[in-house]
## 1
Amino acid sequence: MAKDRSRAGEFADDMRDRAEEALERAQTAVEDGLDEAHRFLKRQWRERPVAVAATALGAGVIIGLLIGSRR
């Protein structure tokens, strides 16, 4: 009986370690993706400021209409 509990404990420890590693990899991937998106947006803002501003305005209007139409 104690042997089964020991195996269960080892299994739980192994699963916890794997979950922690997966979480760390996911956090790194998200951070890398956000950094890349930030660089892209900065580059676009320098190259096409009017287009970026118009896109942001359009997105804001659409979101506003969607939120406002739920009344």
## 2
Amino acid sequence: MSELIIPIVAIVMGCAVPLGVFVWLYFDQKDKNKTVLEIAKHMDDPSRAEEFLNILDERKKEPIDYRRGGVITIFVGIGIYLLGFTVLGALFKGVGLLVGAIGVGTMVAGYLYPNTSEELTNAVEKFEES
């Protein structure tokens, strides 16, 4: 019976953690929406509720910087590779090389596809000149 404890706990935790995160995010967003509705009910101009939604929205309005993410991923790959090189063996070397290659691809994509408004403006101007 004691041999089955670890696999059972692993299976239960593998299901419980994503479910818990889903429930937590649901209730977090639900409270924000209730707050906006209450504010809109007590305002003279309900159309300003969209403004409050933008204030409560925590997501970044800026585009994703693939170059930054690529550099981070490259160094994570290097770290995994070095971990495999020094301690854990060939499997971790391969995983580290894979993660590093994904980072290089992400960084190249960041240079090929401009993402900030200034870079987009410059790309459009270069295209219009040719």
## 3
Amino acid sequence: MYEKTKNNTQNQDLIPISKWNDFYAYPTVGALRQLVFYDTNNFCNKVVRRIGKRMYIKVSAFNEWVETNQGVA
């Protein structure tokens, strides 16, 4: 759905929020943090995975969340 910004042959499904823009140009890290903070349309439960102190975005769940929430937010 979104184009990768770097040529990375690994197909990672969990990406740390702070490293999101190393793989994808959109949305920005700041926009992701805002979605997490406000929990827009149940974003945290569907997309964010917490492992220890770190927060990760599950790419497949993010793509599904975007498709189901088009024009809602």
## 4
Amino acid sequence: MIPTTPAMNPTLSTSLVRRSFARLLHGRDALDRLMNTLQSPAALLARLFVAQVFFASGLTKLRDWDITLSLFTDEYQVPLLSPEVAAWLGTAGELGLPVLLVLGLGGRFAALGLSVVNVTAVVSLAEIAPAAMQQHITWGVLLAGLAIFGSGRWSLDTWLPAKSV
């Protein structure tokens, strides 16, 4: 008897393809379950990381308000705002929005607000070092992910009742 190979036997070939496809789908489903399980802790880590950066910056501005006003007058050229208003708004955003982000309370709003602060910081500087630009890009990508996908299940937003439209 001559051994049969999948190429010589269409039924054997179809069966082999089906089993391979089933294994592939099973692996994809397992990967989906793993990624779904990791979504909330990953979102929390992103929230904590970005919030710490902006909150620390806000605290630095509060430590010496005269220097902060001087920076907004001489170095940061925030479009459409006076240096005093820009300093107040920037500092308030850097102190308030990270708290909301960490708690996951209005998480998308906080992420979008910090995105505005992040973009404004980049736009308002005449020159920015490549390493600093890379940091702003990293924060921007993390904030975009949080704004698009939300704060995850480990947030206060999940405990609030859903609003019906």
